[in-house]
Amino acid sequence: MKALNTFANKKVLVLGLAKSGYAAAKLMKELGADVTVNDRGDLSQNEHAKDLAKLGVRIVGGGHPLELIDHTTALMIKNPGIPYSNPMIKRAETLGIPVVTEVEIAGRLADAPFIGITGSNGKTTTTMLIGEMMKGSSYEPIVAGNIGTALTSVVQKANEKNVIVAELSSFQLQGTIDFHPHVAVVLNIFDHHLDYHGTVENYAKAKAQITANQTADDALVYNADSKRVVQFIAEKTKAKKVPFSLKQKVANGAYVSEETIYFKDQAIMKVEEMGLPGEHNLMNALAALAVAGVYGVSVQHMADVLRSFKGVRHRLEYVGVVQGRTVYNDSKATNSIATSQALHAFPKKEIVLLAGGLDRGNSFDVLVPDLVKAPIKAVLLFGETQQKLKDACLKARIPVIKEVENVEAAVPEAFALSQPGDVILLSPACASWDQYKSFEQRGDIFIAEVNKFR
């Protein structure tokens, strides 16, 4: 880790004590900063807060007192999910105080180069694939970021022998200034998080931060099939362009032709040999191949990873064959696009779909064509969006639509409505917070209920 003394004895406010806030506060204290952590929740029994207090960090919970910020504050590190409309952030901006996420701090301190991965969908799977492929390079990969490990918790141990493979959300990237990955990956841009960013243009602008500081010595791996990625990001980058595509042969990139996967016109493997199902996972694989190709990873290692990789937890995760039904946990599908992709992964199987969750105000009409096309036998609906999803299912003329209380109640119904050879798929198209703490908890409960039928 670089020995920066930039923040020694400087006042730093960490807004939001979650996993990233804890890691950032701890690191800034070690760098000699005068650190205050502020969270609207009660922190009196919070173990992370207690740990930080022992280190000399000031802890302020139960609200956001504006007096914590004044002209002597040098920096605010915000939790990515806190909107910029928050009064604390507004005050910091008025006073000209930089407001960043922990990604910016990690980027300034790391001795290791970064591979940054962003996109509306597929980030986690692609990040994990790249991590596995980079084990065949001259670098030792460290996988972190939005995938679940705070970047500020890994930069201290990373050195020039490592490469940090970082999943990055638009929320994280919007809070960067000088962040500079050696390789940036942009998978896609859909109409996501507009409640946070306001417009698609703002959302794309946040994503574009991943390549904002790149130079001709760096590489941008990008989806050549996405008009938005090309328009908002690839056309504006200064980095070397490395495209990937399902629709066309691309020079200097990864593509599919006649059911064969290629990188720079060299055949890697047949599509049917991949360990992950679905066209969206094929796209993720092409992105990972392109990154591995930049680093000179052998074709054999690339192919071995794609054959053996079975996915990440909660993202079209293969649970097993239970009473003849093939079960998949796609709890991480927290929007319609992700569920659409999951439905296309099983073109020759009849599906019993479990869906529903937090109501964010959107309709699900965008799912209707996919519900029509997919061979869906029945749909089980739960959570706040039951009625909205039911409306979409009725438009798609799904033969059996049933409302249940929650995932726990949905699983036995799914077995009752299915038969051997069918797919039981949890792909909610919604966030989990109306009934569960996280999509991970929702997925774990689904698996536990399925295991009762083994």
Automatic annotation (TrEMBL):
<keyword id="KW-0961">Cell wall biogenesis/degradation</keyword>
<dbReference type="Pfam" id="PF21799">
    <property type="entry name" value="MurD-like_N"/>
</dbReference>
<dbReference type="GO" id="GO:0009252">
    <property type="term" value="P:peptidoglycan biosynthetic process"/>
</dbReference>
<keyword id="KW-0547">Nucleotide-binding</keyword>
<dbReference type="GO" id="GO:0005524">
    <property type="term" value="F:ATP binding"/>
</dbReference>
<dbReference type="GO" id="GO:0051301">
    <property type="term" value="P:cell division"/>
</dbReference>
<protein>
    <recommendedName>
        <fullName>UDP-N-acetylmuramoylalanine--D-glutamate ligase</fullName>
        <ecNumber>6.3.2.9</ecNumber>
    </recommendedName>
</protein>
<keyword id="KW-0436">Ligase</keyword>
<feature type="binding site">
    <location>
        <begin position="119"/>
        <end position="125"/>
    </location>
    <ligand>
        <name>ATP</name>
    </ligand>
</feature>
<dbReference type="Pfam" id="PF02875">
    <property type="entry name" value="Mur_ligase_C"/>
</dbReference>
<dbReference type="InterPro" id="IPR036565">
    <property type="entry name" value="Mur-like_cat_sf"/>
</dbReference>
<dbReference type="GO" id="GO:0071555">
    <property type="term" value="P:cell wall organization"/>
</dbReference>
<comment type="pathway">
    <text>Cell wall biogenesis; peptidoglycan biosynthesis.</text>
</comment>
<keyword id="KW-0132">Cell division</keyword>
<dbReference type="GO" id="GO:0005737">
    <property type="term" value="C:cytoplasm"/>
</dbReference>
<keyword id="KW-0573">Peptidoglycan synthesis</keyword>
<dbReference type="InterPro" id="IPR036615">
    <property type="entry name" value="Mur_ligase_C_dom_sf"/>
</dbReference>
<feature type="domain" description="Mur ligase C-terminal">
    <location>
        <begin position="314"/>
        <end position="430"/>
    </location>
</feature>
<keyword id="KW-0131">Cell cycle</keyword>
<keyword id="KW-0133">Cell shape</keyword>
<dbReference type="InterPro" id="IPR004101">
    <property type="entry name" value="Mur_ligase_C"/>
</dbReference>
<keyword id="KW-0067">ATP-binding</keyword>
<dbReference type="InterPro" id="IPR013221">
    <property type="entry name" value="Mur_ligase_cen"/>
</dbReference>
<comment type="function">
    <text>Cell wall formation. Catalyzes the addition of glutamate to the nucleotide precursor UDP-N-acetylmuramoyl-L-alanine (UMA).</text>
</comment>
<keyword id="KW-0963">Cytoplasm</keyword>
<dbReference type="InterPro" id="IPR005762">
    <property type="entry name" value="MurD"/>
</dbReference>
<dbReference type="Pfam" id="PF08245">
    <property type="entry name" value="Mur_ligase_M"/>
</dbReference>
<comment type="similarity">
    <text>Belongs to the MurCDEF family.</text>
</comment>
<dbReference type="GO" id="GO:0008360">
    <property type="term" value="P:regulation of cell shape"/>
</dbReference>
<feature type="domain" description="Mur ligase central">
    <location>
        <begin position="117"/>
        <end position="292"/>
    </location>
</feature>
<dbReference type="GO" id="GO:0008764">
    <property type="term" value="F:UDP-N-acetylmuramoylalanine-D-glutamate ligase activity"/>
</dbReference>
